[in-house]
Amino acid sequence: MAGRMQDKVTIITGSGSGIGAACFELFAREGATVIGCGRRLAPLEEQLAKVKAAGGQGMVMSADLSKVEDCNRLIDDTIKAYGRVDALVHSASVGWSWSHVSPNSMNDVVNTPPDKWHEVVGINMNPAYFLCHAVLPHMLARKKGSLVMVASISGMVGMKTAHTYCAAKGGVINLVRAMANTYGNQGVRANAVCPGYTDTPMIADVMNIFDDQHEANWLTPMERAGTPMEMAYGCLFMASDEASYVNGAILPIDGGTTARQ
After folding, report:
1. Which residue in 195, 196, 193, 194 sits closest to 216, CA to CA?
2. Residue 165 designated active-site
3. By CB neighbour count within 10 A (0-12 exposed, 13-18 middle, 19+ buried), where does 185 fall?
4. Could you please report the per-residue DSSP string of 161-226?
5. 3-class DSSP state of 102
6. Which of 51, 187, 190, 223 could make an SS bond with 28 (beta carbons 3.0 to 4.6 A apart)?
7. What are the angstrom distances between the C-alpha of 157 and each of 22, 69, 168, 170, 254?
8. 160 CB-contact burial (10 Å; exposed 0-12 / middle 13-18 / buried 19+)
9. Residue closest to 27 by CA, chosen among 97, 91, 93, 123
């Protein structure tokens, strides 16, 4: 029986860990040829080895997607290797844990220096444009393609901290809506998946908040964090032909967090 992404050439960014790694595994399992990228090559090669051991196929490359030339190289190398791109799942970003690497990057506006604003926007929003700008001509030439942006519920509702992160993810969400309007009648769909609290390295240092039932309920009605694979299944649906009439959709996968805000 064919998989849900059988023979689909799919680029998955941020595939070295977290949601991107889950997508890399799941899409390959569903028959896709997966092209993974991230900043560090070693974890990407580990993911590719797992995929190939399970009978999947694909390739990986290191890339800094805040640089337009790296985004262009990712698309160009995929086209050279496979001749087309059927789907792009853009999962790479930085979140709460980035504050340990880059202090003051996840603060409120008053306490966010301008260089940190530019840094987080450069990592979390600019690559969405760079990648879509590079891949869309190829998809439009074939009149077929699927763009799936992994945004965040933080782009849908406000937070007391991480204002730059919220703004960048909100920008990605509205970019999806705009692209859906423009390219939907040309065979290319654009959608966003918005994870809620997800058990990834991005929030590993605050996961203990779910140990307290009252705090856990305050965060989400389901009183637990989601898993990377639960987010990956949403991306799989959006990218697949099962979602052939889904365009411009913003799908929160958050255990009900945004349902009561």
Report:
1. 196
2. yes
3. exposed
4. S-HHHHHHHHHHHHHHHHHHHHHGGGTEEEEEEEE-SB-SGGGGGGGGGGGSHHHHHHH-TT-SPB
5. coil
6. 51
7. 25, 32, 12, 9, 12
8. exposed
9. 91
Question: Does some domain include residue 3?
Answer: no
pLDDT for 183 equals 98
Provide the whole-model pTM: 0.95
- The CATH number of whichever domain residue 106 belongs to comes to 3.40.50.720
Which residue, chain included where needed, has tokens 């949403």?
A: 234
User: Could you give the number of structural domains in the chain?
Assistant: 1
Name the active-site residue from 165, 197, 233, 245.
Answer: 165
Instruction: State the greatest distance between any 2 C-alpha atoms of the chain, in Å, as a whole number.
Output: 55
Dihedral, 17, 22, 27, 33 alpha carbons, nearest 10? 20
Question: Which single residue is written with the structure tokens 């519920």?
Answer: 153
- Start-to-end CA distance of the chain, whole Å, equals 42
User: Would 4 be classed as within a structural domain?
Assistant: no
| pLDDT score for 202 | 67
| Nearest-angstrom CA–CA distance, 221 and 260 | 9
- pLDDT on residue 219: 84
Block mean pLDDT (10 aa), the chain, length 261: 91 97 98 97 97 97 98 98 98 91 96 98 98 98 98 95 97 98 98 93 72 84 92 98 98 95 64
* CB atoms inside a 10 Å sphere around CB 71: 26
Instruction: Return the ∠ at Cα 259 (arms to 237 and 204), rounded to 5°.
Output: 70
d(CA 43, CA 16): 5
Residue 55 to residue 109: CA distance in whole angstroms: 48
- Structural domain contains residue 171: yes
Residue 1's pLDDT is: 53
Tokens of 101: 């690497």
Residue 83 placed within a domain: yes
